[in-house]
Each structure stands twice: as C-alpha cells, then as structure tokens.
C-alpha cells in the first residue's frame, strides 16, 4: 500500500506560519539535500501590497503526529462482513474480551494486511508519521499478527516509522493456554524486528500471576534492551491493588534508570490511578523522579470513557450513575512533571466502537475532558500527540516544543487555509489552538515525511500555489 503513495522532494516552504510568540509572522522552511533537517528563517517573499493576503492564506506548519499506542491487528473489525456477528450487545469489558477472542480465531493473513493498511493509510493521511503498533502473540493467532506487523513495518518504513510491539493480550502465567502463550512470547520478543515487549497483567487470574507477568516483561526487556509497554490498572475499583507500584519496584530492583539505558517504560490506561489521593499521586511522582525511572503514561480516553471496567455493585442498578475515568493528562504534566501523552488505542472494535484514527480529534476531545481550553493548554495537548508522544516511545530525545527551530529533523504537518464547505467560504486557522479547538478535515492536510511531501489525490495542488518551492517529482 505504501508503494502507491507518491512523494516529492522539497527545497523550501515559503511564507508559512509556525507556532511562536507572534502568530502574524511568516517564515521560510528550507530542507537540507537528501534529508529532513531544516533551516527556518523569517520570510522575505511577502511584499507590502500582498502582506494582508499572505497573512490570511499562509498555511500553519507543525510537527507531524504520532500514535504512541494503537493496535494494528484489531482495527476496523466492525467494518468487516466476516465479523458482523461480533458487534457490541451490552458493551461490557468481558464482552469485548470475548468477542475479540472469537474474532482472533478468524484472523488470516490477507484480512490482517487489509485492515492494517487501512489503519496506517488513514493515519498517515491525518498526519501521523510514527506509530507504536501492537500485534498479538498467543495460542490463538500464533505468530500471524506479528508476521503481518513486520510486513507493514517494512512496506511503510519510508513514510511512517512503525515501532512494533509483541503483545500478550492473553494470560501468560495463568489459565489453560498460559504455557503456550508464554512460550510464543519468549520466541517473539527475540525477533530483531520487535522493538517493544507488551503485556496485560490484569488479565491474569491472580494478583501473584499479575506480578509475575510484570516481572517477566521487565526482566526480558532489560535483558534484550527493548522498551516495555503495559496495559495496566484498567479498572475503577478502589478495592483492587494498583499494580503500578509493583512495576516501579521491579524497575528499581532491576536497576532500570534513564541514565542506564535508552529503553523506556510505558504504562497505558491506568484508570485505577484516577482514584488516588493527593498523597498517593505525590508518592508516585517522587518515586519516578527520585529513582530516575524512564516511565511514561499514555491516556487512552476514547477507550477509557467507553470501556473502563466499573466495579460490580449498585452502579449497574443506577443508570444515571456511571463513573468514568481516564488519566488527567494536563494535571499530571503541569503539577507533577510526569511524562504523559495521549493515544488512540483502538478503532472500530468492541473495545472502542467509536472515534477515528485522527490524533487531532483526540486532542480536541482532551480540551473538554481536561478542561484545557486556554492556548497554552491546547499547545500542550498538541505536544501530547506529536513531539511529546514521539519522545515518550523513545524515537527522539529532542525538545518537546512544537515551535519549529533551525535544525529540526522531524516530519511536518502542513495545514493550509482552504474552503472546507464547498461554497467558497474560508475561515483561516492561524494558530495551534485554532487547529485543536476545531480540527480541519483530513483531506485538507498535507504531510512531509523524511523531507518529502506526500502527494494526495486532490483535484488541485494547493501547496504548489501557496507554499512549496522547487518540488522534484519522484
């Protein structure tokens, strides 16, 4: 699929906006030959007579988007006829697990390739150029999802970097198939194409097995110097033990620190943490900071708000009382200095039957969830789906600032001011806040990956007349 996307090299983007203190200023972004390193300088192309026109039409250029947590093999199950009997009935977590198990029994190579390509293509069109993608390994799918993930990683490498996670959704230390699940994971994580070891401790049948799950993943990741990524503490039950403490303690015992390795640890969902007291949050933050633990959190709000498992009890008998929980991303960053990002997680399956692959729409949702409407909050939400997310999954050590500077080597998202109505009406969106408050249509976005413009099949090349100089077809 990636081979069907045409690209063109770029010499200069002329008269564009970037995220800075003066949104009215225009800039030129020049690309070094044969790579994506940029030189950014004040634009000299706008004349006095044309300045007002330039100011209203100049596109905004921001760092490209990132999926820090998304499932490659479970996407768009609901859109496939062969899974039409597996649509949600009661929407419970148990049902989602059961329906996904049934769906996995029907997975096959062509089906996985088709849905995987749909996911990556739609993501790239939205502006995503880096993905941490989960593929399941267990007694049901065996290595099929992993093999498809490796093929997608290879085919898309020039356009979108796929960081592959060998993922144990099923138990590896309890249940009927634990031994085979564990053995297959042991084989999978040693594959050089696998970048991350992922497990789900909460699916184990006992607390002891959950702890063993955590210890195995951390031990194996440390041995192989790979990242580790847990789906963890996915409940809203005050009586359940928060497994995050065992993760942190195991990291300390292992000697896993940010100064000792570039491998990172990601904790996903963590809805149980929303029940923490201020003292518990303080303890969590100080443990991470004081012991130099390279831990990041990823909130997955579309899944969490729909699916966060509720405690059994009166809440099910009171339809107007439906607690929901998802990590308070802005507070965690601003008040606790905890590295936190936002991810899409699932699209089109029983765990998350709503939402799209578009990270900007997710940041928009975050404005409401986190009460983050002021421009500085909105800029931070964009970081959480771009620069901050890229750093959290270990793809860069550069600044998370979304204001572009000379020497920036990342990919770019270009957001032209165009008519989205079809009636000749254009409403300029000149700042990152404008973009996140009201995300532009995916079809209007242009993407630069590895210093090359991805050519969409649009009726007119907007950028040829607005922003791009010296394009060479390839």
UniProtKB/TrEMBL annotation:
Q: Where is the Amidohydrolase-related domain?
A: 60-452
Please name the SUPFAM superfamilies in this protein's record.
Metallo-dependent hydrolases
Task: Tell me which Gene3D superfamilies the record gives.
Answer: Metal-dependent hydrolases
Q: Which domain of life is it from?
A: Eukaryota
The record's annotation in InterPro entries points to:
Amidohydro-rel, Metal_Hydrolase, Metallo-hydrolase_Enzymes
- A GO molecular-function descriptor: hydrolase activity, acting on carbon-nitrogen (but not peptide) bonds, in cyclic amidines
Protein known as: Amidohydrolase-related domain-containing protein
């Amino acid at each position: 699929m990636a081979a069907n996307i045409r690209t063109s090299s770029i010499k200069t983007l002329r008269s564009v906006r970037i995220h800075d203190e003066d949104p009215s200023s225009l800039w030129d972004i020049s690309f070094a030959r044969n790579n994506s390193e940029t030189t950014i300088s004040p634009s000299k192309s706008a004349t006095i007579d044309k300045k007002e026109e330039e100011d209203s039409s100049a596109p905004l250029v921001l760092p490209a988007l990132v999926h820090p947590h998304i499932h490659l093999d479970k996407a768009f199950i609901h859109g496939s006829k062969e899974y039409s009997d597996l649509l949600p009935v009661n929407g419970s977590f148990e049902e989602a697990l059961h329906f996904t198990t049934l769906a996995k029994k029907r997975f096959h190579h062509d089906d996985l390739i088709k849905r995987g390509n749909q996911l990556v293509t739609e993501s790239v069109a939205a502006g995503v150029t880096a993905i941490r993608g989960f593929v399941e390994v267990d007694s049901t799918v065996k290595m099929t999802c992993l093999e498809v993930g490796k093929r997608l990683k290879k085919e898309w490498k020039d356009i979108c970097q796929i960081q592959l996670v060998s993922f144990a959704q099923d138990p590896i230390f309890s249940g009927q198939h634990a031994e085979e699940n564990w053995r297959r994971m042991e084989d999978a994580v040693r594959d050089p194409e696998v970048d991350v070891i992922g497990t789900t401790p909460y699916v184990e049948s006992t607390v002891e097995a959950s702890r063993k799950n955590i210890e195995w993943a951390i031990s194996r990741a440390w041995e192989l110097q790979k990242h580790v990524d847990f789906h963890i503490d996915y409940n809203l039950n005050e009586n359940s033990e928060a497994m995050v403490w065992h993760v942190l303690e195991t990291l300390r015992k292992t000697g896993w620190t940010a100064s000792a390795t570039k491998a990172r640890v990601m904790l996903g969902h963590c809805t149980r943490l929303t029940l923490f007291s201020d003292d518990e949050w303080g303890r969590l933050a100080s443990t991470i900071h004081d012991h130099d633990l390279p831990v990041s959190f990823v909130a997955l709000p579309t899944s969490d708000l729909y699916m966060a498992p509720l405690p059994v009890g009166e809440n099910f008998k009171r339809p107007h009382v439906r607690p929901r929980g998802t990590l308070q991303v802005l507070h965690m960053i601003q008040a606790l200095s905890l590295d936190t990002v936002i991810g899409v997680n699932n699209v089109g399956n029983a765990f998350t039957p709503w939402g799209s692959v578009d990270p900007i729409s997710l940041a928009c949702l975050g404005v409401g969830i986190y009460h983050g409407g002021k421009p500085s909050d909105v800029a931070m939400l964009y970081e959480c789906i771009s620069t901050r997310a890229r750093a959290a999954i270990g793809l860069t050590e550069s600044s998370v600032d979304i204001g572009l500077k000379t020497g920036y080597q990342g990919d770019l998202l270009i957001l032209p001011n165009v008519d989205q109505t079809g009636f000749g009406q254009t409403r300029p969106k000149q700042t990152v806040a404008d973009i996140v408050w009201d995300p532009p249509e995916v079809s209007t976005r242009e993407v630069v990956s590895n210093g090359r413009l991805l050519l969409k099949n649009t009726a007119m090349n907007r950028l040829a007349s607005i922003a791009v100089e010296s394009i060479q077809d390839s």
